[in-house]
Design goal:
Blueprint (H helix, E strand, L loop, with lengths): L7 E7 L4 H10 L6 E8 L5 H8 L3 E4 L5 H14 L4 E4 L8 H7 L3 E5 L11 H7 L4 E8 L9 E8 L6 H25 L2
Parallel strand pairs: 1-2, 1-4, 2-3, 4-5
Antiparallel strand pairs: 5-6, 6-7
Helix pairs in contact: 1-6
Bound molecules: 5-O-phosphono-beta-D-ribofuranosylamine.
Length: 192
């Protein structure tokens, strides 16, 4: 018999704080959510998010980072072993290779703190403020070989006020991230 009827098996990759992970775990516990988080992997064994996941009885793996290829090799084994259907990156600060994406062969989603295609890469809020943009935001997109360039699944914007600093904008965008990541995952899965 299927172990989690109607739910897809999800793995999450994180590097640090893990507020998006925490939010996804909460979402996964709702009756109507389409996901069951099976394992969380981090390239940083001290990542704060690992502690929360382990308290939620989710399998955690902190892989001491030597290089991306050994990280990918180890995590690929785990993803296959646990028969993962979808990988979600949430504050994962390493770039996965095309080889990994191909070998995993299931979809991978990422959350990015900008209105893609604007501001791929790092320091998104700083760049938006510097350019005097009117809006910032967050995007959930499919992960491809090209950094932050896969199809956008969901995006939400927030106004940048004159008084905003990088810190205050980061806070506002994080709130949006927490709103849209669970929605985007469910939307993505129900269209598969
Ligand atoms: C988020 O802003 C995410 O978009 C970015 O890194 C941050 C991670 O936050 N890639 P958390 O670890 O989920 O709290």
């Amino acid at each position: 018999m299927e172990k989690y009827p109607g739910k897809r098996k999800i793995a999450v990759f994180i590097s640090g704080r893990g507020s998006n992970l925490k939010n996804l775990i909460k979402h996964s516990k709702k009756k109507n959510s389409l996901i069951k988080i099976i394992l969380v992997i981090s390239n940083n064994p001290n990542a704060e998010g690992l502690k929360y996941a382990s308290r939620s009885k989710i399998k955690i793996f902190g892989i001491k980072f030597k290089n991306i290829s050994s990280f990918e090799k180890n995590s690929l084994k785990l993803l296959k072993k646990y028969n993962i259907d979808l990988l979600c990156l949430a504050g994962f600060m390493k770039i996965l290779s095309g080889n990994f994406i191909k070998k995993f062969s299931k979809p991978i989603l990422n959350i990015h703190p900008s209105l893609l295609p604007k501001y791929k890469g790092l320091n998104t809020h700083e760049r938006a403020i510097k350019n005097k943009d009117k809006f910032a935001g967050a995007s959930i997109h499919k992960v491809t070989e090209k950094l932050d360039s896969g199809k956008v699944i969901l995006q939400k914007k927030v106004k940048i006020l004159k008084s905003d600093t990088v810190r205050s904008l980061e806070k506002k965008v994080l709130k949006i991230e927490h709103k849209i990541y669970p929605k985007a995952i469910d939307k993505f899965l129900s269209n598969l």
